[in-house]
Design goal:
- It comes from Myroides pelagicus.
- The chain folds into 3 domains: 2-170, no CATH class; 200-239, no CATH class; 252-362, Glutaredoxin.
- It contains 11 helices and 10 strands.
- It has helices at 2-24, 27-38, 52-72, 76-100, 117-136, 147-170, 186-189, 259-263, 281-296, 309-319, 330-336, and strands spanning 200-209, 212-217, 229-239, 252-253, 256-257, 268-273, 300-305, 325-327, 342-347, 350-356.
- The protein has a 5-stranded mixed β-sheet with strand order 8-7-6-9-10, with helices on both faces. Strands 2-1-3 form a 3-stranded antiparallel β-sheet, with no helix packed on it.
- The longest helix is centred in the first third of the chain and has 25 residues, at 76-100.
């Protein structure tokens, strides 16, 4: 039991630290996942949505600290109970998500290691088993250091985690694991390779035959009796087929998708605000001068948002912005960039730089 407890201690501790640090690299992305969980379609806790980012930061820092505490044997009883409460909560959350197919990715490891809902649930069940082992053999979890040194380790961990959280929220993730990272060719990311598997569907047709409703598959159409009356048709997807890494990116204006034309621009700047109502007013106020600077250097500058045309017009007028907005799905824009607003520089369809609006002075704009 002693050896099993120590192995479980190492496994759980490292996994909690790894999971927490990956999410701490991008707490805004994790907060988007929490907003999905809090929505009326999932847990029906909409009053928590405004606090999603704060909750995300607290949870990910707690994950790291609990992992560190377990490894060094700090406050054993409290640490084990906190680990149990956290894993029970997340096990319930991932089961609910998987069973009802509500959230397709739990965000457990951010964008670094995407997990399916059932994969997330399985991971949590495994962790729960190991934590129960730790509770059973908790007498073998002894401190590695004296109290003063353990206190300093925990305090240092808290300070470092807090600094990382502050940094990434005021700049961008230290490591970008997303589909739209620097170096990505957007149009190539949208291509479907030749010979890639296509989505497969099954079609069922319902007819009234002698006063009764009967179902016929698309392979049984030749068996439909004469005089049968068509009622309805239902289509079911059997397999999704190949889905390109970038499959939901559009640059729409006045009902026309301008993606191909804009991706051909040699020098293009995107000012992204997935929701103009939630955008930083200070950030938007800085976009006028930044955009003018880019235009002087022969860049085409456009905004991208999922907001209404009324809000777009109001924003352009309020901040005297020298560019037009194109629309795109809000989730896609959240995936591209975390700051609101944020800056993405593209050359011939390739993302060459991404910046938080606070780092606009460091954006890699080429001179004329």
């Amino acid at each position: 039991m002693k050896i099993l407890t120590q192995l479980s201690r190492i496994f759980v501790g490292i996994l909690f630290i790894l999971s927490g640090l990956i999410k701490l690299n991008d707490p805004t992305g994790f907060s988007f996942k929490l907003e999905e969980y809090f929505s009326t379609e999932v847990l029906n806790l909409p009053f928590l949505i405004p606090y999603a980012l704060a909750i995300a930061v607290i949870v990910v820092i707690a994950e790291v600290l609990l992992g560190v505490a377990l490894l060094i044997g700090y406050m054993r009883k409290f640490t084990l109970r906190a680990l149990l409460v956290m894993i029970v909560f997340f096990t319930f959350l991932t089961f609910y998500s998987a069973f009802f197919n509500k959230v397709t990715d739990c965000g457990c490891f951010g964008d670094a290691i995407p997990l399916t809902p059932w994969g997330s649930f399985t991971k949590d069940v495994v962790l729960l088993i190991f934590i129960l082992i730790l509770l059973k053999g908790q007498q073998y979890i002894t401190p590695l250091f004296k109290a003063n040194k353990s206190n300093w380790i925990m305090l240092t961990s808290l300070v470092l985690c807090s600094f990382i959280g502050y940094w990434v929220l005021n700049h961008l993730p230290i490591k970008d694991f997303r589909t739209y990272k620097k170096g990505t060719n957007i149009l190539k990311g949208m291509e479907i390779p030749e010979g890639a598997p296509r989505a497969k569907y099954e079609m069922n047709f319902y007819y009234e035959v002698e006063g009764e409703e009967k179902k016929f598959t698309d392979k049984e159409l030749g068996q439909i009796p004469k005089g049968a009356k068509f009622i309805r048709r239902e289509d079911f997807q059997i397999s999704a087929g190949y889905i390109p890494p970038i499959h939901d990116f559009t640059m729409d204006k006045d009902g026309i998708d301008h993606t191909v034309d804009l991706m051909a621009e040699p020098k293009l700047v995107l000012i992204i605000s997935y929701d103009l109502d939630k955008a930083s007013t200070e950030g938007l106020s800085q976009m006028k001068d930044f955009a003018n600077s880019a235009i002087v250097n022969n860049y085409k500058v456009i905004g991208m948002t999922a907001s209404s045309q009324e809000k777009i017009d109001q924003t352009i007028e309020t901040y005297e912005l020298p560019f037009d907005y194109y629309t795109c799905d809000g989730t896609t824009l959240k995936t591209i960039e975390r700051a609101n607003p944020s800056i993405v520089i593209i050359e011939n369809g390739v993302i060459v730089d991404k910046k938080h609006w606070k780092d606009r002075a460091k954006a890699q704009l080429k001179n004329k």
